[in-house]
């Protein structure tokens, strides 16, 4: 069972993002404030969950959370400001939408930019340690997956319904054959014959 939050003195929002390592589509972030008595044994880092479990948890979180919000930053903005700052911007946009201003923020990862002077703590692999961050990871992942599944029907050749924009062999082969779509991140490039993503400005 994960711990409820990083601290318990202040109302805490957990934040996480999904889609940083994708070749196409937006980066999506979520902010979640859970009730102090929230419990769910299934809740964990969204990447460790089965699709059906993620989708079921999404319903539970959206129903039972004290407040939650999801925000996306599109591929053009990612190209303009880079994926790190786009991810942080998406988190800020999600926090802006919360019905309650948190007194503390816990963030998955090791980089963040202050939001409204609210104290915060970054936590490496925090989505596997704290329930509020894990809940944010589930919402960010499921909302982004849903977005990419819908986008798939515009460009089925890239198989986004399966890969969600990540650099799978089929996705890379389609890029090699027909080039990039208008939803691809142009600042990202693949090293030859590798399934690794490399920002062009790294």
Describe the structure.
- By secondary structure, the chain is of the alpha/beta class.
- 35% of the residues lie in helices and 18% in strands.
- The chain is built from 6 helices and 7 strands.
- The strands form 2 sheets. A 5-stranded mixed β-sheet has the order 3-2-1-4-5, sandwiched between helices. The protein has a two-stranded antiparallel ribbon with strand order 6-7.
- Strand 1 (12-18) and strand 2 (27-33) form a beta hairpin.
- Helix 2 (75-81) crosses helix 3.
- The protein is globular, with a radius of gyration of 17 Å.
- The protein starts with 11 loop residues before the first strand and ends with a strand.
Strand order of the largest sheet: 3-2-1-4-5
- Write down the CATH topology of the domain at 12-151: Nucleotidyltransferase, domain 5
Order of secondary-structure elements: EEHEHHEEHHHEE
Structural class: alpha/beta
Just give the CATH class of the domain at 12-151: Alpha Beta
Annotation field: number of helices: 6
Can you tell me the CATH architecture of the domain at 12-151?
2-Layer Sandwich
How much of the polypeptide forms β-strand, as a percent range? 15-25%
Uncertain regions spanning at least 5 consecutive residues:
193-202
- The geometry reads as globular
Characterize the biggest β-sheet. 5 strands, mixed
Count the E strands.
7
Q: CATH superfamily membership of the domain at 12-151, which one?
A: Ribonuclease H-like superfamily/Ribonuclease H
Mean pLDDT: 93
Rg over alpha carbons: 17 Å
Helix percentage: 25-40%
